[in-house]
Amino acid sequence: MNILVLNAGSSSLKYQLIEMPSQVVQCVGLVERIGMEDAIFTHEKDNEKHSEVTPILNHEIGLKKITKTLLDPKIGVINSVDEIKAIGHRVVHGGSKFSHTVVVTKEVKDKIRDLFDLAPLHNPANLTGIEIAETIFTSAKQIAIFDTAFHQTMPKEAYQYAIPSTYLDDYNIRAYGFHGTSHKYVSEKAIETLNKDTSKIITIHLGNGCSMAAVKNGKCIETSMGFSPTNGLVMGTRAGDIDQSVIFFLMKKLNKSADEVNDLLQKESGMKGLTGFSDLREIEEKAGNGNEDCKNALKLAAYRIKKFIGAYAAALNGLDAIAFTAGIGENSSLMRHLSCCNLEFLGIELNNSKNEIRSKDIREIQSLNSKVKVLVIPTNEELEIAKQTCELLN
User: Fold this and answer.
1) Which residues bind substrate (predicted)?
2) Does 217 show up as a binding residue in the annotation?
């Protein structure tokens, strides 16, 4: 069956059309800068890319543009919208309401709307994508896949905060975790590589947003992001873990508003705050040329990863493998090296030559002496969404 995977952001629409269960990707595309006169539309089929700059003032126009392209006699891949049997929608926050993939109903949409406060930048756009798709692909099943669902297996001692219990009971304030689709996909690939009945794995998703998860026998038991995607590791523009007293200090001592502090911690911190740059490739290049701020930022980010590796090895009571994924995790040999060095006591030791190899395939980069497998696994969130959609319908 043809499954269209849609990821609706606040100003973007990503899509892939995937034939399942063969897992053949028929086309991929992206609408960027939605709401602008100079929006950018790209569509790729059979390694041939079509790009154009065009006004796309809202998500409805964007999805209609995608649909028209899918039907185009030259660069399209279908003859009728009825050929698409299901649409898998990425929804960032499912709260504690959704632990599995679901068919979209009015009740599901109402619950996604109820969670707007927990993900104000993402859930409204995700719901908009669903509602527009319903009007265009009228015969297709609409399926919602939640970023938080994979982490719903965490035990209460992992997700509850040490504040009065009424805040959990009445307001659902707890750790949820994110990047769940990626962590699920990567952990399953790691389990296949281990080829054993039981497994203790740490997945390390490093991109502009960064998170880690401890996965025991295929179930998440701990993750670094919490109530929102802002805590845990050092990220491109997000601070990650920080003493909450710093927030009150900034508000009282420096007379900053809550919104100003929020913007500071989410948009002006992390690697950007430490170096002035948010692109890791540029930071690595400048560090190599002697920039002390950039060298320090790389060490700081890797140190945070190492702390979580140690903590998660304790939570798992052992460790079979760690798996690096996403843009930085897959492509930065330096970050992998810095994150794994001096962890021999945990049984982690890299083979430096293997670590330098660039490939789109799953690969092992540990030394012969390493007791723990160190894996690089390219993530594929769109394929995972298609798989979960297919499994639900079957």
Assistant:
1) 90
2) no
